[in-house]
Design brief:
Helix 2 packs antiparallel against helix 10, helix 4 packs parallel to helix 11 and helix 6 packs across helix 11. It contains 11 helices and 11 strands. The relative contact order is 0.18. The radius of gyration is 24 Å and the shape is globular. The protein has a 6-stranded mixed sheet. The chain has a 5-stranded mixed sheet with strand order 7-6-8-5-9. It has 2 domains: 162 residues, D-Maltodextrin-Binding Protein, domain 2; 116 residues, D-Maltodextrin-Binding Protein, domain 2 (3-Layer(aba) Sandwich), CATH 3.40.190.10. It is α/β, with parallel strands linked by helices and 328 residues long.
Length: 328
């Protein structure tokens, strides 16, 4: 009897030990051990999508797991953002987020379904989408400083276009207006292409344009590229100086791009992803692809990205409230 009991206890002990080992193995399994999904809140082919695909392809090589881009366009990027906010926080659903989705939408849309600060954890900043100040050829200014002076001339009533109410082009121009002390009327269009077409035709006077569109008109006689609203020149337009280089220090902010994960994602996964994104951005081929998408790389780790994101959230929010911008 005693022998049978001893045998049973040994078996029971072995079962507990095996279960403990199995559980420990599951908890400590190295991240990632299965495919990762990158949600993009915009349609395929745009700058955000191209950026996500360039990052995802190289991440797959570094992390030794498939990294798949999943486009969920609609509602100014909010459909995709909400999916990530509600996703299981395990590191296997992340987002290629931009300033529009996390620094602008929360302040401009009254019934937004996610909280950009509480529902996400910043993983890594990838860089910036700089904007270029374009003006119609009928505007006599040839520099940013001259343009500011031009708008202040008596009797001048200028207009500017954007790719929609509460778009980054709209809010950034309001930032320029406030900081430069000028006034212009906003004329929204359904997309960046028709917005720049309005500048080309002279229908509107100015626009803050994505770099990919601006570069296509570098030698146009129908519009002028006066400057880049960023801290450094854009390699695709090396001859166009920044606002700062022209002596116009307006504290303008380019549109950031970065990786976000659902709040509660384990630190191990966040840190691993943050490190991997940094490695991706060291690849010259990736940098070249990002430039073609209109993005200038600028890496920040999760630790550094968090305070930057918080500051940008406040900066864009202040502009939106001051200008009373409301999405339609």
């Amino acid at each position: 009897m005693q022998s049978q009991m001893t045998t049973a206890l040994k078996r029971f002990g072995f079962s507990i030990l095996a279960a403990a080992c199995l559980t420990t193995g599951q908890v400590r399994a190295e991240y990632p051990d299965r495919p990762i999904k990158v949600i993009v809140g915009y349609a395929a082919g745009g700058g955000t999508d191209l950026t996500a695909r360039a990052i995802a392809a190289r991440l797959s090589d570094i992390l030794k797991q498939p990294v798949v881009v999943d486009n969920r366009p609609g509602a100014s990027g909010m459909i995709g953002s909400n999916l990530v906010a509600k996703a299981k926080p395990d590191g296997y659903t992340i987002q290629l987020a931009i300033g529009d989705t996390h620094s602008i939408n929360p302040h401009a849309f009254p019934n937004i379904a996610y909280d950009a600060k509480k529902d996400f954890v910043p993983v890594a900043q990838i860089g910036y989408f700089p904007l270029a100040l374009l003006v119609s050829s009928k505007v006599t200014a040839n520099t940013v400083k001259e343009f500011i002076e031009y708008t202040k001339q008596p009797g001048k009533s200028l207009t500017y276009s954007s790719w929609g109410p509460a778009s980054s082009g709209h809010v950034a121009m309001e930032m320029l207006k406030t900081n430069a002390g000028i006034d212009m009327l906003h004329i929204p269009y359904q997309g960046a292409a028709p917005a720049i077409a309005a500048v080309l035709s002279g229908e509107v006077d100015a626009m803050l344009s994505p770099m990919t569109l601006a570069a296509a008109y570098e030698n146009s006689d129908k519009l002028k590229i006066l400057g880049i609203a960023a801290s450094t020149r854009y390699p695709g337009l090396p001859n166009v100086s920044t606002f700062d280089e022209q002596g116009v220090r307006l504290n303008m902010s380019p549109v950031w791009a970065g990786v976000m994960a659902p709040a509660g994602t384990p630190a191990e996964a966040v840190n691993r992803l943050s490190w991997a994104v940094g490695k991706v951005l060291e690849d010259p081929k990736v940098e070249e692809t990002l430039l073609k998408a209109g993005l200038t790389k600028g890496y920040r780790s999760s630790e550094a990205f968090k305070p930057y994101f918080d500051a940008e959230y406040k900066r864009w929010g202040d502009v939106i409230r001051r200008a009373n911008i409301k999405a339609q």
